[in-house]
Amino acid sequence: MTRDRSAVIAITGTDRAGASAAPAESAAPAAPAAPVDHAQDVREFMFGAWSDLLGCHNLTEHADFFTRGGDSLLFTRLVRRVGKEFGVVIPLHDMSRRNLGDQIDLVHMLRTRGLSGRARPAVTTSDIRTFLAEQWRDVLDCPSPSDGSDFFALGGDSLLVTRLVRRVGKEFGVEVSVRDILTATTLADQTRLVGGLLTEALRPAPLLRRRAA
Known about the structure:
The protein is mainly alpha-helical. Helix content is 54%, strand content 0%.
């Protein structure tokens, strides 16, 4: 009988009563979750965005947006897509001076700062109005403008509009066209215009669909 029981244990690892003959092994600890590679996320998105906007796929990190057929309109779309996808504000002039690889590094750096809690504080409507009012006083040499003040009625012209647009872009990292200012001539209108562009830049975008090679 003892011999039969030993044979069962040797073959099945359990005795006839179902008890395990060998001591139970402790469960292996679960492997830690792999860290999210944010740099790779940015790289894949940027390559996809360039491919989608330029219609080309033989890209390297040394590629230049404009030599690959890009123009100012397409570049503005690129910057807006990046802002929507990663919630970062990137001045156009910062991006335009960089090749694809350098753009990836820039976006990754800004995104990392945001993820670590050091992102630029949210811009309020009051912040925008205060900045615009200061610029109006400077470029128009006028006292404190009211919400209903008109840029052109106070002496503004195309040259001063260009200066204002550049300053707004540098301060807030959004692309404001001269045409926009021509239709938003009051301080209140311009405040709403810049606020809307900032909101649009930070709105999440749908995933890009890459064109077939």
